């Protein structure tokens, strides 16, 4: 997670009030953190602490290939009407997969600034208004989209939740 977000050992260690040596040992699996420390790390990365706990015990072969529904973790905050879960089995790789649930009558509070990513997805249920680089698109269930390095905004004007499977490359793990 730290490497995927371009965070240094020093930055994270300072944020969670630990030494870089301690954090390095944690990353190498030489020490076990307390739930309090995991909570601090989760807060730093805007994750739910459940991110660090798996409901199932996948085999070594399965660990990087599959994420079971019981192991999905919510990322970010649902305060603005958007709830997201990580679908990608691991944190490595060249892309990440999320499911995004947009609550009825919700709007992104601001445009998401352009970032060095390519993003795409497919609407599974509901309707999403996606504004990409000033062009407003109304997407229905089954419609897909793709864009790169540009600002975007979203809203759900409907009376039902909208579900979108979202792919981002390289991973942002937001």
Name the features.
single chain; 174 residues; Jelly Rolls; 2 domains
The average pLDDT value, as a whole number, equals 86
Rg on CA atoms, Å:
18 Å
Main sheet, how many strands, which sense, barrel? 6 strands, antiparallel
User: What's the CATH architecture name of the largest domain?
Assistant: Sandwich
Number of helices: 4
CATH homologous superfamily annotation of the largest domain:
Jelly Rolls
Please bin the fraction of helical residues: 10-25%
> What is the element string, with H for helices and E for strands?
HHHHEEEEEEEEEE
CATH topology name of the largest domain, in short, is: Jelly Rolls
Strand content: 25-35%
The number of E-state strands comes to 10
What is the level 1 CATH name of the largest domain? Answer: Mainly Beta
Number of domains: 2
Intertermini distance: 10 Å
Poorly predicted segments: none
Strand order of the main beta sheet, please? 1-2-3-10-5-8
């Amino acid at each position: 997670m730290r490497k995927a977000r371009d965070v240094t050992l020093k930055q994270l260690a300072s944020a969670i009030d630990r030494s870089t040596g301690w954090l390095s040992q944690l990353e190498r699996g030489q020490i076990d953190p307390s739930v309090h420390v995991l909570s601090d790390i989760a807060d730093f990365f805007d994750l739910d602490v459940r991110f660090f706990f798996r409901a199932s015990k996948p085999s070594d072969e399965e660990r990087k290939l599959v994420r079971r529904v019981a192991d999905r973790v919510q990322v970010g905050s649902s305060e603005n009407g958007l709830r997201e879960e990580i679908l990608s089995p691991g944190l490595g790789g060249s892309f990440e997969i999320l499911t995004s649930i947009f609550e009825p009558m919700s709007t992104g509070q601001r445009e998401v600034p352009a970032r060095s990513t390519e993003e795409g997805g497919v609407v599974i249920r509901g309707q999403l208004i996606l504004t990409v680089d000033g062009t407003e698109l109304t997407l229905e269930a089954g419609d897909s989209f793709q864009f790169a390095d540009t600002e975007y905004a979203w809203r759900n004007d409907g009376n039902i939740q909208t579900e979108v499977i979202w792919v981002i490359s390289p991973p942002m793990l937001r």
